[in-house]
Amino acid sequence: MKDTMHGNKPSKKKIRYAPSKGLNEYLDLYGRLVVLPLQYEDMLRYMASTPLVDTNGKDTLWETVYYDHADKDDINQSLCEIYALLKTEGDTEVLEHLTVARIDFCTFGNTKPFRIRIINKLNDNYDHFYIKQIDSSRIYGLELEGILSPNRVSYLTYDKTLIEEHVAGVPGDDFMTKHLDVPKFDQIRIAKEFIKFNERCFVRLLGDMRAYNYIVDITPDIEGSQYRFRAIDFDQQSYEGWKSFYLPQYFKENNPIIYLGIQHLESDAVRQYQLEERSLIARRARSSKVRLNKLLNYMIKDKISNEEKVEKLCLELAEHHNNSIFYECNSMGEIVLANLKLVLKKEFIQSIIDV
């Protein structure tokens, strides 16, 4: 594993693309398109806000927002209904036990999300979900995550609104600050899982996986702990034009984990973990072949980036893979399909070698 730095940054303002008719048909087919009692624009009617700080008094860059009394009850009721749609497919029996505890707004994100804290009055347990401006890139990212990775994210769409569940885990930047001082056995596991995460992002071209855009799920095990890196930001699914943007290893924010790999893993072990993850991706792709083909067919036709970025990425991937197939690609969807085909091919060749 190489120690590398990444100086590239995403576009200052990413363009959001509305879902096409075809993508909406796909979302409807798979139960993601649902009539909602409230839209993103309704959430913008707040009357006041205050900065939200963490337990150490540090600004979180979120603001807690407040609504006029005339709107508050209706908004809260609608939010509870949306939570029921997201978690129980609209079972209204749960509504009497739900209440909205807090609504936070993030002004710096591409989709400018609202985060809703829901409390179950039966046990005071709380959960979160998000209301965001819809973006085709993010939808394709969420779908590819569900099909090609071991993770699933529940979400719903309607018109210009995207609803997402909260993914629990330790934010990547906090993880590197507080959880790397562990026994060597666990450090090796962390490095191994980051390699697999790096591979998943590159195969499906999910970009901008710097530390604050993913979480780490830590599960205590018989010996040590198990770790899984999970993306939580899908805005940069197949949008930018340079190859390194889709490899988390190139972001300097991830260097503490890169150093663990340099310290503990030989190049042969890194290669083995890469091949293992490619094989798993290929199996997931085959097991969900019908759904994946439908998704990619729409992605190929849709515009989710500009021609300059598409052309640049084609050139860089053609050079990286030493394969001219990318010169024939005219959209980000075609690039993703070409990348996946290479993985499937590599996995097939690897199987023959193993035999």
Report what the structure shows.
- It contains eleven helices and ten strands.
- The protein folds into two domains: 21-133, no CATH class; 170-354, Phosphatidylinositol 3-kinase Catalytic Subunit, Chain A, Domain 5, CATH 1.10.1070.
- The longest helix is centred in the last third of the chain and has 23 residues, at 332-354.
- Helix content is 44%, strand content 18%.
- The chain is globular, with a radius of gyration of 21 Å.
- Helix 9 (289-301) packs antiparallel against helix 11.
- The protein is of the alpha+beta class.
- Mean pLDDT is 91; it is low at 1-7 and 347-355.
Concise account of the structure shown:
The chain is of the alpha+beta class and 355 residues long.
Helix content: 40-55%
Total helices: the number is: 11
Please give the number of β-strands: 10
Q: Main sheet?
A: 7 strands, antiparallel
Give the total of domains: 2
Strand content: 15-25%
The CATH C-level class name of the largest domain: Mainly Alpha
Shape: globular
CATH structural architecture of the largest domain? Orthogonal Bundle
Q: Give the radius of gyration.
A: 21 Å
Whole-number mean pLDDT = 91
Query: What's the order of the H and E elements?
Result: HHEEHEEEHEEEHHEEHHHHH
- Strand sequence of the main sheet, in spatial order? 1-2-3-4-5-7-6
Question: Runs with pLDDT <50, length 5+?
Answer: 1-7, 347-355
